[in-house]
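Dissemination and training. As part of the outreach component of the grant, students in the summer workshop were shown how a complex can be specified as a set of sequence lines and then modelled as a single object. The example used during the hands-on session is reproduced here so that future cohorts can follow it. Participants entered these lines:
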Amino acid sequence: MSILIKNGRIITSADDSVADIYIEGETIVAIGKNLDYQAGTVIDASDKLVFPGGIDPHVHLSMPFMGTFSSDTYETGTRAALYGGTTTVIDFVLQTQGDSLKNALADWQSRATGTAVGDYSFHMAVTDFNEDIKAEIKQMVEEEGITSFKTFMAYKGALMVDDRQMFDLMSEVKKQGGMVTAHATNGDMIDLLVAKHRAQGKLSPLYHYLSQPEVTEAEASNRFAQMAGYTGCPAYIVHLTCEGALNAVRQAGARNYQVFAETCIQYLILDASLYEQDFEGAKWVMSPPLRQKKDQAALWAGINQGLLQVVATDHCPFMWEQKLMGKNDFSKIPNGHPAIENRIELLYSEGVDKGKISLSKFVEVSSTNAAKAFGMYPRKGTIAVGSDADIVIFDPNEKHTLSAATHHMNVDYSGYEGWQVAGKVKTVLLRGKVVIDNNQCLVQKGNGQFIKRNKVSNIL
Ligand code: DUC
Ligand code: ZN
Ligand code: ZN
Ligand code: ZN
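and obtained this result:
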């Protein structure tokens, strides 16, 4: 099978030029002006942007959480991702405390294998670290191609590791050539504030927000970053939301620690005023919560200053019925919001179209940097000879409106209902196959491949 994409404006993190792309099988074979190949399929990309398939390194599909499961499966979630221009996602395997990493991996593989429509990989979330688990780290890196290890500094009793475990884990992961990532919020402080609010009968979604003030994130981010400095382990803070946490990253960078950070699309464009309405605010109950306008400004600046390398989603959808589990108590609202399908179009619209970030920065933070940080570059994350032909053809002039009535995520509301976006994902290729065209998905479940990742070296 061969495809020739003609006359698109090809944007990578480094280049911007109008040219053709020739693809054979799963791979990009040539890039240049007026390419002369006899291709099975020719796609005219005149007046369109052509950029690498998006990589969302933070999603939760079919995740058991807070007594229920996130509502997108590997099938519905990765398909929705493709509609939105994201060709690869990285999900999180969650170790059950007291059990092995191997068993957790088998559990996640059973949900994803043969089900995913788009490509996927796993981070391993270590929730209970001891000598037995230490031996499994090497195995994950060397044999399974899982080179990043997630930790939770909150959710005590189910997911949280203490500082001793974190410190020990970082030393081991450093030795094995991996990366440690963290949900960096202070779980003890949050648990105390949650308990206080509940005791006072303060039970609406607003108190979810007020139980996780900025200091809880700034403190944990700083603690994690300092441990990264001491152990020398490459570290990555997931879903960074606020100025205080960003300052912790800035300080770590000033000392040349390898501390990377991700924010998510919602923290750039939504703010905490959404919690000031009765139960409706449950749509945006996520952890960490939405922040203030001043934090949005800090995050956009953080992207442009290179302090934040990735814009992900933390896609973790729940049906409205599931959100209602917390109708009378914010602490029982399943945490998470749907965005896997909307990330690229929102980032283009609110970032590039409104002049906050450049096109090359857009490609960096939506694709290239995640591929580099997580050991998939240059197979993924760029348009280059030899790379997987994961390609988005995007019309920067086709305005449309986001809505639950038209999205493909398995969730019955949108966090962005009625939002106008400035451009549209038109055609998507995954490993040389047209998977999305003209608002249709052309592939079935099982099309997605598990991507083994390389060790982390000389990242970013
Ligand atoms: N935060 C969420 O909002 N959902 C899933 C897990 C998390 O940390
Ligand atoms: Zn988290
Ligand atoms: Zn998450
Ligand atoms: Zn759209």
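The chain has two domains: 2-51+383-441, 53-373. Students were then asked to discuss how this feature might be tested experimentally.
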